[in-house]
Amino acid sequence: MLGHIDFNTSDSSVPLLDSIADRVEGGINSAITDAARKLNIHDFYSAHVLDYCEGYYTPMAISNATEHPTKNVTRCSNRTALFHFDPTAILQSELKSDVDLFADLHWPSAIEDGIRAVEVASNAMFVLYCIGVAFAGVAVLGSLCGVFLEGRMSMLLNVMLNFLAFLALGIASAIVTVIAVKVTNIVNQHGDDIGLAAKKGSTFLGMTWAATALMLLACFAWIFECVVARRKQVSYIREGKEGRL
């Protein structure tokens, strides 16, 4: 979030001082928010796998004793494959022509270096997500067929499909987790001086790891079916031999 200032007055025990502090904080935050908007800088930028969104906090960027900001998304970029979030290029394109991100706003070059360092990893993440989703979709169809078709080959095929989906989604989830942690740490470490902060998308990380866990459970379920079917087959063979005797 750009244009952020943390003016903490929660430790005060005097109501009058609290009121004065809230007014001072509101004035400072309002001035910073106005300055950021005059530069065409948005309050927040949310990076996703295929695109990014930007917007403003309402009624103000910083919460106080009476008001808490909510996100108001104003625009999202076009969804593209192998998308890589480049905040430096985005901010520079939005700034007025006579404002330079590095010279005038002191944008840390370490942030740019850190984000470029994970570009290859983000591309690999996208490819693995595509592979994982494809295998998961085929695994669903295979599971539906396996309900009606008997035989170990059908079960083994479903085990393989679910395992490949789990493997691709698991690696992709690990990559996106590392990227989120690395980028967040870099931004928070080098962006504090210019009021820049970042946080991980906990909801997305939870969803991607949940999908990975579900594919693993599906794989174990089909392995269990294979074992049960094998035991039934052995039991039938034994019963047939005993009947002949």
Report on the architecture of this protein.
With 245 residues, the protein is mostly helical. It is 62% helix and 7% strand. It has a three-stranded antiparallel beta sheet with strand order 1-2-3, with no helix packed on it. A hairpin with a 4-residue loop joins strand 1 and strand 2. Helix 3 (109-117) runs antiparallel to helix 5, helix 4 runs antiparallel to helix 5 (152-190) and helix 5 (152-190) packs antiparallel against helix 6. The longest helix is centred in the C-terminal third of the chain and has 43 residues, at 202-244. The radius of gyration is 27 Å and the shape is elongated.
Characteristic terms for this protein:
245 residues, mainly alpha, three-stranded antiparallel β-sheet, 62% helix
Question: What's the short story on this structure?
Answer:
With 245 residues, the protein is mainly alpha-helical. It is built from six helices and three strands.
Helicity, as a percent range: 55-70%
H-E order: HEEEHHHHH
How many DSSP E strands? 3
End-to-end gap? 80 Å
Q: Report the portion of residues in β strands.
A: 5-15%
Structural class: mainly alpha
> Shape, please?
elongated
Mean pLDDT: 78
Number of helices: 6
Which spans of ≥5 residues are poorly predicted at pLDDT below 50?
1-28
Largest sheet data: 3 strands, antiparallel
Side by side, the strands of the main sheet go 1-2-3
Report the radius of gyration as a whole number of Å: 27 Å
